[in-house]
Design goal:
This protein has 2 domains: 259 residues, 3-Layer(aba) Sandwich (Aminopeptidase); 221 residues, no CATH class. It has 20 helices and 9 strands. The strands form 2 sheets. A 7-stranded mixed sheet has the order 1-2-4-3-5-7-6, sandwiched between helices. Helix 11 runs antiparallel to helix 15, helix 16 runs antiparallel to helix 17 and helix 18 runs antiparallel to helix 19.
């Protein structure tokens, strides 16, 4: 934190006096660490200025010759923010990583510390390095650290192509590894860039990390040392140190030339990470399709499903999504109207414009979730004409199966988020609905709860991440995810078990006259 305080006390954009002072501090620290730093200077023109970038490069020799491991971050900030999170936290953490490495056994591979300049201007420092300096020819792997907030877990959100081998090292070496292949797939389709974009285009393999909580402070005067979460800073250092030791002692020449496919990866419980090859996604989706088809066939054979009831359930689902999204968007719209501004001002930290606070954002997420859950339960379980509990469950299975097929085809990195919760939910429903098994009410509840575990473990954290990544202005999107989650819990039988509802399996015969 001392390093962050030294360089992020005031805004220090490229070409500023504050940036020059931060640079001198960093060069002095790098000299004390025995990195023999050098400045790599390049120039780039914007619409109104010719900027000079000063990248800082330090090298720590390894015990063997071969490709080097490069740790990368940037030290410039935006003109109106001190940049404690973006990217002072990474600068401070990586300096400490080098100190820790020097205090222990030397690494097999050379370690390069690259602290770029001009990232906020348009990645100019990284661009100049690629164009004007031969440094990258010595690099076998790059680990880049950035931020879009001031707190939260630093997550693996981007990799180079063919990432399975790198992700497996990350999953086994990093303390409580966090990241998803869904984030990687989405990020590839976004216009956002970091220095890692330039390194990847230059042909380097590597991993890219960032934390995104308290995003309302990103690129603002509130990106200060006071608002930087110490736990986040510590976690960046834990990641970087563990991965530096792992990759610093690996055969980077083999890693550099290895050809592997992309991996599916996601967190399940805490810091445990699931990793498997991308080639598995279609077989997994086909299993889900087969289970759903089997469930529909058995449902119609045993007269648990009706055509009209299923159609009604399929109509209720999009109507519920529309109602949840509309209510969420409407609440966000109202909170931004001057009509409510005075009332909201009486609640500390709740003014959403022009200066939202993290506590206000968290409260809005809770309110959005409660409203959407209430609407889903009301509209999904209100007076029904033909739709029975089994019809609602079948509608959820059909929609989730369609989502899994679409994700597998169009967003393969996110296929796990639809496939695994749906496979368990549909399997649980099959066990509940097959008459030959004679499942009792209590056993139905137990099966339903077990079948709901993947949905409960995987979907709520993903909803929170979506809410953070999309920002509160697009919070209506999470209404879709909340509705689908609850409907999937209806498919598994969890909602039915909680409410102790559901049609009897076999209706008792009417008593004969005179009995």
């Amino acid at each position: 934190m001392a390093h962050v305080q030294a360089i992020a006390a005031v805004p220090h954009p490229a070409d500023s006096a504050a940036n020059a002072a931060a640079r001198e501090y960093l060069l002095d620290q790098m000299r004390q660490l025995g990195l023999s730093p050098r400045e790599q200077v390049s120039r780039a023109a914007t619409q109104d200025w010719l900027h000079t970038m000063h990248n800082l490069i330090g090298r720590l020799p390894g015990t063997t010759a071969g490709p080097a491991l490069m740790l990368a971050c940037h030290y410039d900030s935006v003109p109106y923010g001190p940049g404690a999170g973006d990217d002072g936290a990474a600068v401070g953490a990586l300096l400490e990583v080098v100190r820790a490495i020097r205090a222990g056994p030397p690494l097999r591979n050379e370690l390069i510390l690259l602290i770029t300049d001009g990232e906020e201007l348009g990645l100019f420092g990284a661009r100049g390095l690629v164009q004007d300096d031969p440094l990258l020819k010595d690099v076998g792997l790059v680990l880049n650290f950035d931020a879009r907030g001031t707190s939260g877990t630093s997550q693996l959100f981007e990799t180079s192509p063919g990432n399975e081998d790198l992700v497996r090292v990350f999953a086994s070496a990093a303390p409580a590894p966090t990241g998803t292949s869904l984030a990687y797939d989405i990020y590839k389709r976004m216009p956002n860039d970091t220095d890692f974009t330039i390194f990847k285009r230059a042909g380097l393999r590597g991993l890219n990390f960032a934390f995104i909580d308290n995003y309302v402070y990103y690129h603002t005067p509130q990106d200060t040392v006071a608002n930087l979460d110490r736990r986040t800073l510590n976690q960046i250092g834990g990641y970087a140190l563990a991965l530096t030791r792992a990759f610093g002692n690996a055969d980077l020449a083999a890693i550099q030339n290895r050809k592997t496919s992309d991996a599916i990866f996601f967190n399940l419980i805490g810091g445990s990470m699931v990793v498997y090859p991308m080639s598995w996604i279609w077989p997994i989706t086909i299993v889900l399709c087969a289970l759903t088809f089997l469930g529909l066939i058995l449902g119609f054979i045993h007269r648990r499903l009706g055509v009209l009831g299923l159609l009604e359930a399929l109509i209720r689902l999009p109507l519920t999504i529309a109602a949840g999204a509309g209510a969420t968007w409407g609440l966000w719209w109202l909170t931004n109207k001057a009509l409510l501004r005075g009332w909201l001002a009486s609640t500390p930290g709740f003014i959403l414009r022009p200066s939202p606070t993290p506590s206000a954002i968290t409260l809005l997420l809770i309110v959005f979730a409660i409203i959407t859950i209430a609407l889903t339960l009301l509209l999904g379980r209100a007076k029904r004409w033909r739709a029975k509990e089994a019809d609602l469950a079948a509608a959820g299975a059909i929609v989730w199966t369609a989502l899994a097929v679409a994700a597998t085809a169009l967003l393969p990195g996110g296929s796990y988020l639809a496939a695994w919760p749906a496979i368990f939910a549909v399997s649980g429903r099959l066990l509940i609905e097959v008459p030959a098994l004679g499942v009792t009410r209590w056993n139905r509840a137990i099966i339903a709860l077990i079948a709901s575990i993947p949905a409960l473990l995987m979907l709520p954290p993903s909803i929170v991440n979506f809410f953070t990544a999309l920002t509160v202005a697009k919070a209506f999107v999470i209404a879709l995810l909340i509705v689908l989650t609850i409907w999937l819990l209806t498919t598994s039988g969890c909602v039915e078990a909680i409410f102790c509802r559901g049609e009897p399996r076999v209706r008792p015969p009417s008593p004969a006259p005179g009995t």
